[in-house]
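Comment thread on ticket #2218

A.B. wrote:
> Attaching the input chain for the structure job we discussed in standup.
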Amino acid sequence: MDVATAAVMLLGTILLSSFCVRSPALLQPKPVYKVYDAVATSPAHIFMPAKAYSQAAVDTFMAQQSAANASGEAVLESSQPPYQPGDAGRWILPDADQDFDHLADLLDNVHRMNHLWSAYTLVQGIVLMLLVFR
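C.D. wrote:
> Ran it. Output below, let me know if you need it in another format.
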């Protein structure tokens, strides 16, 4: 019984050491993640993904916009390119998924750390039960 308790205690020590060594490497958050395009400036488009400015996409859209203006079927009221978050026509730009991917990786690492900590807690509970039964 004592050998089993010592073995489980050793396992708990290994899990805790692994948690302490791996945690700093897994958690390297950035101060800000730009996941949404215009959270503060455009409440109507709060869940629009962050956009990467692309001159080619803007040029194509502006050409379509000027042709639509000539035919009276304009998509936007203004003829200004969408440079800033919250500008009309930002939806034409390609999505910038880089920060979203970084945030998803960070949350995945937190999930892994949670599993490791749960395993450590389970092992410590088993150690306490073995000590009580002894």
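A.B. wrote:
> Thanks. Noting for the ticket: The chain has a mean pLDDT of 80.
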